Amino acid sequence: MIIVVSPNATPEDLDIIVRQVEESGRQAHLSVGTERSIIGVIGPDMPELQDMFESLPHVESVHRVTKPYKLVSREFRATPTVIDVGYGVSIGGTELAIMAGPCSIENEDHMMDSARGVRAAGANILRGGAYKPRTSPYAFRGLGVEGLEYLANAGRAMGMPVITELMSVRDIDEVARYADIIQIGARNMQNFMLLDEVGKVRKPVMVKRALSGQIEEWLLAAEYIMAQGNPNVILCERGIRTFETAYRNTFDINAIPLVKELSHLPVIADPSHGTGKQGLVIPVAMGAIAAGADGLMIEVHNNPERALSDGAQSLTYERFAGMMRSVAGVAAAVERTVPGVGASAAAR
Amino acid sequence: MIIVVSPNATPEDLDIIVRQVEESGRQAHLSVGTERSIIGVIGPDMPELQDMFESLPHVESVHRVTKPYKLVSREFRATPTVIDVGYGVSIGGTELAIMAGPCSIENEDHMMDSARGVRAAGANILRGGAYKPRTSPYAFRGLGVEGLEYLANAGRAMGMPVITELMSVRDIDEVARYADIIQIGARNMQNFMLLDEVGKVRKPVMVKRALSGQIEEWLLAAEYIMAQGNPNVILCERGIRTFETAYRNTFDINAIPLVKELSHLPVIADPSHGTGKQGLVIPVAMGAIAAGADGLMIEVHNNPERALSDGAQSLTYERFAGMMRSVAGVAAAVERTVPGVGASAAAR
Amino acid sequence: MIIVVSPNATPEDLDIIVRQVEESGRQAHLSVGTERSIIGVIGPDMPELQDMFESLPHVESVHRVTKPYKLVSREFRATPTVIDVGYGVSIGGTELAIMAGPCSIENEDHMMDSARGVRAAGANILRGGAYKPRTSPYAFRGLGVEGLEYLANAGRAMGMPVITELMSVRDIDEVARYADIIQIGARNMQNFMLLDEVGKVRKPVMVKRALSGQIEEWLLAAEYIMAQGNPNVILCERGIRTFETAYRNTFDINAIPLVKELSHLPVIADPSHGTGKQGLVIPVAMGAIAAGADGLMIEVHNNPERALSDGAQSLTYERFAGMMRSVAGVAAAVERTVPGVGASAAAR
Amino acid sequence: MIIVVSPNATPEDLDIIVRQVEESGRQAHLSVGTERSIIGVIGPDMPELQDMFESLPHVESVHRVTKPYKLVSREFRATPTVIDVGYGVSIGGTELAIMAGPCSIENEDHMMDSARGVRAAGANILRGGAYKPRTSPYAFRGLGVEGLEYLANAGRAMGMPVITELMSVRDIDEVARYADIIQIGARNMQNFMLLDEVGKVRKPVMVKRALSGQIEEWLLAAEYIMAQGNPNVILCERGIRTFETAYRNTFDINAIPLVKELSHLPVIADPSHGTGKQGLVIPVAMGAIAAGADGLMIEVHNNPERALSDGAQSLTYERFAGMMRSVAGVAAAVERTVPGVGASAAAR
């Protein structure tokens, strides 16, 4: 950390600041300037310290120079993490991870039909929500454990790993039993208790970026999980909240290459939530892959106008299959592959 | 809801939309225009329905005309809710609620000393954090149950109700035992499971607005709690996240009068988090009271530069006492009172 | 400026950076750390330099430590600037500046009637738009010079200085002839040519903050004007653009005390644009005064539903008079006064 | 427009609203509901009208159902506009427009060298700034007319059309004389006088989106130009301002397909400003092309650490040439081409 001292500080004022730095267990390196003096703080940047130093008299500003996260960083691990999620599928390698399925699990038949539909079009991971975060207490909140069973059965039948959202520590055992990947939703990105708990589980965890989550906060959410001993963390960019009202969220494409630069963890793009509009899902999916994303999460519904949630952003099977063909071309241009025709043929 | 149909829709297309509306259990009222046709949907606006209708072919836009919340609204209850929080203090009446204390509970002596300090300066509710939401897993996370005890003891000694944050369903029994008011933090405003659970408790609950929480979402968070049977909900504006980097958060003063207009629930202002800078806390506190807030939540620390968290925004006892004098003048101008000289004299 | 060098830089790499700093005419002060080295750049922080240093190899981050503005800062002038705007009215002193009138000047009678109405209720400065910035090319764009005449006549008749917006260098002579204060609108806050030109005029200039203008950019806009020799600059906070859709803009109350701390220039609050909703104007006006604003700019229209622009946020004469009474109480609490009953009585 | 009337309105209240609608020259179509009544307003949605209706008593909300722009819309012109910008280059066709060059024109040799460098790597349009919008009045503001000459000469020598920014009506004749495409910068997107004036010129105009410009406002800026008779308008997405501080701006990829859907005008992506970081420019450029952009605007400098502005986001010739190869692959996947090796070979 670097502490910039205001011009009117006396040598005694400087001395007080230096002493505080030393009491915090850090070394202080003072550079007295003609206008402003600067104190370099030697030792790890701790979150509390910036705050503490900022409140000292005569301190003008405090600048952090080291990153607050460690385990998720490229300095900690230079090579990309590739995560095996079962059924021969891995995330972060050359083949893209294509997670697809309905927003909510609606019933057993529908789930099985969805699995067949997305599998045939080339998805390699099945998604479906059994616990739904809903802005209103009066909205459909998901089938719970029953839904988890339908999802797991459909995944098994099609030979695909499944991903589903965990919303509460209360349900962690159930979700960990049925899911191959546990999803932490955007609204829980800073539910720190939940992050701690999924850090103790041995299943891969995908952390969605919060609606107003800064990149650093998002990486720190992943750090929470890794700090508890779970190295299998996947990040998911799903759009941020901005002033623009023409779409539900603004997909942040900058985040893809930046996170790949800062961290070794794989990054998935969710253009369904990232746009909230059917018509934008495919071009934004293509853009995300071109920019380096390791995969996609797409809401697919055989009959979007009857979906129990998020119909406005769901693709039909046909449009999803079309998306897969378009994405395949872009993937080739960036030396990635989409899950194979072979696999999908096998599933038919 | 109102469905606007695109100009190129045929009578058959319109018919399909009308039928979907009817299948959803609503009545459709069709107005065929020269350019666009409009379908009025008669019956309550359900969150899922907008989404479903938006995904129908030829639907251009869907406009909600009723509010998605009920119990929190002025239509449901025209007169302001006043909540008794114990020790003769209530929130939402003529006397302002002044919640003050340290961000984190640090130890027994410090908590007692803080209680005495803020009480003497005129606070009528004691705050202190035993469970701290921290962006980094490596930061101080609070004393837990031990801290709750120190807080409750200090409150009892000074004759003040206490407020503290609940972060997880796991800790609800402990927090409900010690706290007079349970705080839901900004990062948990959409932790829907937690909202459900505090709705089942009989203690008053204060819901902070999320960093990017829209007014409607915030009121729906309160609706979650009321829908479970707990009518004692307090709202707290604590600043939102914007593009401005000159302060930690941007205190949204517009929210105060708007929420008072839309809802009967009391609204507290937190200028400590709403600004993140000591120098702005007092003027923004005064502004919030002038705009109609029912009280303040202020971080106070005898020694901000040694606070274990949020030192940069904490006031000393002296500055807090100065704030109380300034706020008293503004309060008088809006026909409110600050907790009395009598009470504070008694505490000395 | 402080340059933080990445951990993997060699002594030769450091040397190259040091040499670049010296070539830029600054001195470099190198502190070699165990993990990262830091280079203090001694000499004024120039806007180009940060950018240049950031693009050097092995530079991790560059931190500015001095403010980029000078003439507008408290360091340059410690005491508040008070600006005489004619007719015995000044801005920045104990008496608040209350600017009121219609959004658009509609016709001669309406302007005169408006002047009488706002004067009677206690306004001391008359506002009215002759050139209107309109999002759509098909909207009413103002009466131009004809409107300026109506405004100036109405101001003269009521003995009030007038303020109006200048949108283009082309109209500067006309506007400067008729106006006592020239307004630079939010959309022109970074129209740098226009800022230069009003800097050469001898009339006071009020600069509104841009929809997404950061505090520093806003102060630099004022610096543009002062740098050309015009010291009479007034700032106006009029709400910023955020994710919240419940109001047209979000009034940023934090900006009031922060700008008063950083700068000696007076600050006016515009709660009409800052909220965009009639029902919020009065409480936010009261809040802004309590937080230290030097005055208000309020849209007033005898018949808001027939206003040619911004009717939704205009107050009637009656509500404006009520606002003046409410503001008077708050003003007293912060040792300010509202323009007198005497003046308004004289105008009747 | 649709007017939603509040539940407590009497038949007389409804009558007053209906009469106001009719006085505005529109027809009113009243649907009396059990809870709320709704008035359909038949006739074009004018910007003033929404505002006027919102301020009527008992009006709860007003919803616009038609778009406020016409000439720029797909309804007005279904097929994409292709704009010939000289030297055989056009924008909006199969071949991508690749605009490249330095942020600021620095001197004659540097400009010529830049033109040669970017031409060799495959650019087909040359960019360079002679008038620079600078946040600080003390920063380098460009060479003015002298710079325009260097740019035009360099373009002519390399057989490339040139684009440069116009900041003020004052300079319109000079800029129109030298430039093949006139750029309106982000800070001038709502400088309506400037938009009017470039609408009267016969040169193509590229309008950058403002830092907080909503899609609708951006399209209306283009409408201003078309309404004056200039049909040759190009849009440019250059990143928006959000809460994220990890990059200078957030490139809004959603805007690309949405604008292509709403409008027939071509859209260029500027990932240099859209990210502000060298390391992100190439992946975001690839993403933008994959999502459907008609071209790119890239800052290129032979020596970024010595650029007079925006060095941090400039690519060297080598990296720009690498970008062109990467973009070529993505372009092929979306059936677009990059300007040919043939052309660049010819220029050597």
List the helices and strands and how they pair.
The structure is a homotetramer of 348-residue chains.
Chain A lengths: L1 E4 L5 H13 L3 E5 L5 E6 L4 H8 L4 E5 L19 E4 L2 E3 L5 E5 L6 H14 L3 E3 L17 H14 L3 E4 L6 H7 L2 E4 L7 H8 L5 E4 L6 H13 L5 E5 L17 H8 L4 E3 L1 H5 L2 H13 L4 E5 L17 H17 L7 H7 L1
Parallel strand pairs in A: 7-8, 7-14, 8-9, 9-10, 10-11, 11-12, 12-13, 13-14
Antiparallel strand pairs in A: 1-3, 1-4, 2-3, 5-6
Helix pairs in contact in A: 3-4, 3-11, 3-12, 6-7, 10-11
Question: Order of strands across the biggest sheet of chain A?
Answer: 7-8-9-10-11-12-13-14
Tell the overall outline of chain A: elongated
Measure the end-to-end span of chain A. 59 Å
**Strand residue content of chain A:** 15-25%
Tell me roughly what share of residues is in helical segments of chain A.
Answer: 25-40%
Most extensive chain interface and residues per partner: C-D, 56 and 56 residues
Oligomer: homotetramer
Please, what is the average pLDDT of chain A? 91
Low-pLDDT sequence parts of chain A: 341-348
Series of H and E elements of chain A: EHEEHEEEEHEHEHEHEHEHEHHEHH
Helix count of chain A? Answer: 12
Largest sheet of chain A: 8 strands, parallel, barrel
Structural class of chain A: alpha/beta
User: What is the strand tally of chain A?
Assistant: 14
Using only CA atoms, what is the Rg of chain A?
23 Å
